[in-house]
Amino acid sequence: MDHQNQPASSGIVIIGSGLAGYTVIRELRKLDKTIPITLVTKEPGYFYSKPMLSTALASNKSAEQLVSTNAEGMATQLEMTILSEAAVTAIDTVAQTITTSRGSISYGKLVLGLGADQIRLPLQGNAANEVITVNDLEEYAQFRKSIEGKKRIAILGAGLIGCEFANDLVLGSYEVDVIDLAPQALGRLLPEAAVQALQTKLSEAGVRWHFTTTVQSIDRNGDALTITLANGTIITSDVFLSAVGLKPRLDLAKAAGIATATGITVNRQLETSASNVYAIGDCAEVDGLVLPYVMPIMQAARALAPNLLGQVTTLTYPAMPVMVKTPALPTIVSPPAKGALGEWKINPIEGGLEARFESSDGKLLGFALLGAATAQRAVLTKELPPILP
Ligand SMILES: Cc1cc2nc3c(=O)[nH]c(=O)nc-3n(C[C@H](O)[C@H](O)[C@H](O)COP(=O)(O)OP(=O)(O)OC[C@H]3O[C@@H](n4cnc5c(N)ncnc54)[C@H](O)[C@@H]3O)c2cc1C
């Protein structure tokens, strides 16, 4: 369906109706009410908050209830054209056109807000094709259907998203097994003491952990799944959810000859290697950083919008703590930069824990705040150095 306020033109074309695409458009409209904007998306074009996918079960929110505005509403609100359910299959950076499953469009400036795919590990067994991932609203709807009337869920991956789903599912009275190759949950984000505190609270809430091992095979046995782990443990479950991380969507950019590394490479004006093509959000890599979170998107959109209008603006990233949405023990983390020199100092407090990563001269370079200590978020964030000054 087209939700059209003006004809598609060679103005600004944005691919992707995720937070990145929509936030750029909101920022553009603050600066320019009339420039033609066309949003092209594989999805129906609705706006929803992706972070709610891993917390919506306990509050019994259906996929439809997570949609805050439909495509028509967004097109009206932001005075733009939406070409929805249109997959972009090619970009011609010389002719400045994109090919979609619903025809070609020319662009003056093009923004790639393509997001990231869940990584899928190759798994053995006759039920390997029953592995579920939840990375968009449609997948959430399928996930809700597959767990209906079921009791047991196995989750592969004890990272941020795996832990959030585990907490949400135990709150929804499911039995949850979490499997990870690492020796602990959230290993790369939190210091040991903080991880132990969070794991203990999640265990008390009912989560069963299987660390330092992986899944060898998944087989269907009647109504149940038999999950065989590399360490010999056998888990019987009803549904298998994989949450082992994300990889930026690069195929379109690569096929168009646009430079990529881990993400689509952009400079601090969010420009890719092709002229008039920009990238933002989970698909983009700025100065070597791929930060697949909401706050970096907000910052980047504020820099990208003026650049698209010809006002050269450089992206800066302040410190941007991330909330781990685990009600069993709410956690906020701002990990130190890769290679930062210093050590974690752990300070248990009543009902929580404060962990500070400090340099040898006492400068705060990162933190993890758990439970009652999360109240310190604003104060400590001010002390942190910016990620991109
Ligand atoms: C379960 C979960 C919980 C999260 N919780 C948090 C949190 O608490 N805090 C936080 O900061 N971050 C969180 N995140 C991360 C955050 O949600 C993402 O960083 C953000 O939503 C990414 O937005 P995006 O627009 O870059 O990508 P996406 O939302 O993935 O959007 C990409 C868009 O591009 C479209 N697209 C892709 N390829 C094509 C194509 N070829 N043709 C047409 N359209 C295309 C897609 O259909 C989609 O509309 C969470 C993520 C998940 C999955």
What would a concise description of this structure say?
With 389 residues, this protein is of the alpha/beta class. It has helices at 19-31, 63-66, 71-78, 137-147, 160-171, 192-204, 251-255, 294-308, 377-383; strands at 2-3, 12-15, 37-40, 47-48, 67-69, 81-83, 88-92, 97-100, 103-106, 109-112, 116-118, 152-156, 175-179, 207-210, 215-221, 224-229, 234-237, 239-242, 246-248, 264-266, 277-279, 284-286, 322-324, 331-334, 343-349, 352-358, 364-371.
Please characterize this protein's 3D structure.
With about 400 residues, this protein is of the alpha/beta class. The chain has three domains: about 1-115 and about 245-310, FAD/NAD(P)-binding domain (3-Layer(bba) Sandwich); about 120-240, FAD/NAD(P)-binding domain; about 330-385, Enolase-like, domain 1 (2-Layer Sandwich). About 25% of the residues lie in helices and about 30% in strands. The protein has a six-stranded mixed beta sheet. It has a five-stranded antiparallel beta sheet with strand order 23-24-27-26-25, sandwiched between helices. Strands 14-13-12-18 form a four-stranded parallel beta sheet. A hairpin with a 4-residue loop joins β16 (about 225-230) and β17. It is globular and about 55 Å long. The model is unreliable at about 5-10 (pLDDT under 50). The structure holds flavin-adenine dinucleotide (FAD).
